[in-house]
């Protein structure tokens, strides 16, 4: 397990605060990235506020990231494309 840091809300009425958590080691076909930039879109705000009624807390919004590959699991090597991560055989 690897320690990680993100920003999360603990309730629908709370602000985002630093949140430590643990990640599993990258498995085959997975990569670990160092997040350099993260966008929070309007749907993330709806999710944090539980406006759809299905939020699990702590809620860590942000699914649009720019990062640097720091490790990869065994198996296929990751290659970078202009819009997303692509996998090479």
In spatial order, strands of the major sheet run 1-2
Q: Identify the CATH architecture.
A: Alpha-Beta Complex
By CATH, the topology is Quinone Oxidoreductase, Chain A, domain 1
Largest sheet: 2 strands, antiparallel
- CATH superfamily membership: Medium-chain alcohol dehydrogenases, catalytic domain
Number of strands: 6
Order of helices and strands: EEEHEEE
Tally of separate domains: 1
Distance between the termini: 27 Å
Secondary structure layout plus pairing:
Layout (H helix, E strand, L loop, with lengths): L1 E7 L8 E7 L7 E9 L2 H7 L15 E9 L4 E4 L4 E4 L1
Antiparallel strand pairs: 1-2, 3-4, 5-6
Structure keywords:
8% helix; two-stranded antiparallel ribbon; Quinone Oxidoreductase, Chain A, domain 1; 89 residues; mainly beta
Explain what you see.
This is Alcohol dehydrogenase. GO terms for molecular function: alcohol dehydrogenase (NAD+) activity; metal ion binding. Residues 28-75 form the Alcohol dehydrogenase-like N-terminal domain. Keywords: Metal-binding, Oxidoreductase, Zinc. The protein has a single domain (2-88), classed as Medium-chain alcohol dehydrogenases, catalytic domain (Quinone Oxidoreductase, Chain A, domain 1). The chain has one helix at 42-48; strands at residues 2-8, 17-23, 31-39, 64-72, 77-80, 85-88. It has one helix and six strands, in the order βββαβββ. It is mainly beta and 89 residues long. It has a two-stranded antiparallel ribbon with strand order 1-2. Strands 3-4 form a two-stranded antiparallel sheet.
């Amino acid at each position: 397990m690897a320690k990680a840091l993100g920003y999360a809300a603990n309730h629908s009425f709370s602000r985002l605060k630093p949140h430590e958590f643990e990640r599993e080691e990258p498995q085959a076909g997975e990569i670990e990235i160092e997040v350099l930039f993260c966008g929070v879109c309007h749907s993330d705000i709806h999710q944090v506020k539980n406006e759809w009624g299905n939020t699990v807390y702590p809620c860590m919004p942000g699914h649009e990231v720019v990062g640097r590959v720091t490790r990869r699991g065994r198996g296929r090597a990751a290659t970078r494309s202009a819009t997303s991560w692509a996998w090479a055989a």
